[in-house]
Amino acid sequence: MQLFLTPNGRIDQATYWRAVLILLGISAALSVVSAFVSPFLGIAGLLFIWPWIAVHVKRLHDSNKSGWLTIAIVVLAVVVSMIASFILPGLFGVDQAALQAEMQREIENAAAGDAALAMSAAMDASKRIAQATLLPSILSTAVVTGVVGAVMGLFKTDPNDNQYGPGPAGASVAFT
Predict the structure, then answer these.
(1) SS3 of residue 18 by DSSP
(2) pLDDT of residue 169
(3) CA–CA dist 169, 171 (Å, integer)
(4) pTM
């Protein structure tokens, strides 16, 4: 768990990729669960921001770079995510504007005097939107992970001990 909970230390590229694939799998599973159970479960994804940051900071430390460069990585991820979220749904035939308009109509029809019914309609419509955008959402996450991973691959391991920890021989973090 130390790998995901602390930004201190260094990790090699192999450990970085194992951690990224685990986090990507958790993100995909969380997307599926939130699409079929409750879209509000997607908020649990916020709990995984810190593990993503910790893994990237350690990888930067391995190349003797400041962990603060992770801010640039986050900006890159947000930009790529925004671009992917505009392109991918259309490629899968998902008309997000139509889905939102349908949701609005259902809520307005249900809100004619019964707030509980309006809330239920909103939840049902949210679930349908989450299900319709599930595959584009998972692919968007995979694209962002791939782009960020490619950028992180540009940072080569510093073979010597540095201010962040020992060199590759002793820098491997246990996967616990």
Answers:
(1) helix
(2) 65
(3) 6
(4) 0.83
